[in-house]
Specification:
Rossmann fold, binds 5'-deoxyadenosine, binds iron/sulfur cluster, 14 helices, 444 residues, alpha/beta, Transcription Regulator spoIIAA, OB fold (Dihydrolipoamide Acetyltransferase, E2P)
């Protein structure tokens, strides 16, 4: 047994990685390892990496060098690197960073256990996609919220995106397996699940070891599980956002009134260069369809500025779409060239950093102003808030999320994991504030 051994995991990047890290932690605890509060002193230092943007790479490398220094002091330390960055450099990791002992891709989390249990800890890499982590034990940050990976990989070819190169073709998990997994989670106290995939609404076409299905069918089956109060998902692709999923939001109680629908750019010309497979008009059509059936839904998005060849006129179109749609929030990114992607070759059309930063600032101004305006619709309403803990700025207040995905800071008495009615008294672009409605609670 490894009863006295400890591990430390640092996670970079998206929710998919957060989820895989929970699996890693669960797996390590079942092997007898205990979680250490810090890297310093841990027997196993793990990184779950991301390669979506260059900044993520450099941040991670700084951390890795810190771990190398700890290993110099304590040569028995094992350093492991998992996730997308590891997958993108594969065996090169050992050449560039000789102090790394084990490296594995996103489809290889279970190999970590095999590696740790083997007799000789000689450097090894595992990069073939072999399976989902669904069957592995998991350690959840909050016992009432869980993530479920419904598919891996992506069949789209967005010209800026490294995911198809690192995570490969899309593979979906069978519907019955997903339903059984969520049922088990709900039996264990989970009331909110977030379904994860690179292109979730393409779910069902590439099921490994099961029948074809659809994302809308999956939502309906999960909605039928007693005790599951909230279903979220991220991210869908506008191309595959069809009426069945739009109607699922309108008809299924547990499917939250929030959709994260990545726009990326507002100019049809840039969208074409990005290989996004939709135009500005088609995106706006989708939004109209979504709002026709779900007038109150919160819409959030991802936008990239400074894509190669983006002109001021193209960028103006992105601003126009943001004005017109009025997103409830947006993640905004400056384009970053990624190895093994088509757009990284467009070097003659790269936009200068100053221009990109200037566009980003103007975009954030529009996005925040519109989000702030949209948020005013909640004032005076009583929203169901899932309590997550204390307010980050004022620990005498509670913090939670509305079904729309909005952070709500409020006064009241409640435990994490409870859903309580909160009367909203003020709203900014990022957060809502309010008071727990005791009367509504007494009547509930
Ligand atoms: N440069 C900048 N942003 C990117 N994204 C993906 N690849 C890149 C890149 N090369 C953004 C997209 C995506 C989000 C997860 O990250 O907006 O939706
Ligand atoms: Fe990347 Fe496009 Fe696939 Fe999203 S849909 S993971 S942006 S290739």
């Amino acid at each position: 047994m490894n009863a006295s051994k400890t591990f430390h995991v640092t996670t970079f990047g998206c929710q998919m990685n957060e989820h895989d890290s929970e699996r890693m932690k669960g797996m390590l605890e079942s092997l007898g390892y205990a979680e250490a509060g810090a890297q310093d002193g841990a027997d196993l230092i793990l990184f779950n990496t991301c390669s979506i943007r260059e900044k993520a790479d450099s941040k991670f490398i700084a951390y890795l060098q810190q771990a190398a220094a700890l290993k110099r002091r304590n040569p028995g330390t094992v350093i492991g690197v998992g996730g997308c960055w590891a997958q993108s450099v594969k065996e090169d990791v050992f050449r560039q960073f000789p102090y790394v002992d084990v490296a594995f891709g996103p489809g290889q989390v279970h190999k970590l256990a095999e590696f740790l249990n083997s007799d000789s800890l000689t450097a090894q890499g595992f990069f073939e996609f072999e399976g989902f982590t669904g069957h592995l034990p998991m350690k959840r940050e909050r016992e009432f919220q869980g993530w479920v990976q419904i598919s891996a990989g992506c069949n789209m070819k967005c010209s800026y995106c490294i995911v198809p190169a690192t995570r490969g073709r899309q593979v979906d998990r069978p519907l019955d397996e997903l339903v059984a997994e969520v049922r088990t989670m709900v039996d264990g106290g989970v009331i909110e699940v977030t379904l994860l995939g690179q292109n979730v609404n393409a779910y069902g076409r590439a099921v490994r070891g099961g029948e074809r299905s659809s994302f809308a069918a999956l939502l309906a089956e999960l909605d039928a599980i007693d005790g599951l109060r909230r279903i979220r998902y991220t991210s869908p692709h506008p191309q595959d956002m069809k009426e069945d999923v739009v109607l699922a939001h309108a008809q299924l109680d547990s499917v939250c009134p929030h959709m994260h629908l990545p726009l990326q750019a507002g100019s049809s010309r840039v969208l074409k260069e990005m290989r996004r497979t939709y135009s500005r008009e088609r995106f706006l059509d989708r939004v109209a369809l979504i709002r026709e059936h779900n007038p109150d839904i919160a819409l959030t998005t991802d936008i990239i500025v400074g894509f190669p060849g983006e002109t001021e006129a193209d960028f103006q179109e992105t601003l126009e779409v943001c004005e017109e749609v009025g997103f409830d929030g947006a993640f905004t990114f400056i384009y970053s060239p990624r190895r093994e992607t088509e757009a990284a070759e467009f070097t003659d059309r790269f936009v200068s950093h100053e221009v990109a930063v200037d566009r980003m600032e103007r975009l954030v101004e529009v996005v925040q102003r519109r989000a702030g305006e949209r948020a005013q619709r909640f004032i005076g309403r009583t929203l169901d808030v899932l309590v997550e803990g204390y307010s980050r700025t004022d620990p005498s207040r509670l913090r939670g999320r509305s079904a729309h995905g909005k952070v709500v800071n409020f006064t009241g008495l409640a435990q994490p994991g409870e859903i309580v009615p909160v009367e909203i008294t003020s709203a900014t672009s990022q957060t809502l504030a309010g008071e727990m409605s005791l009367l509504a609670r007494a009547l509930a």
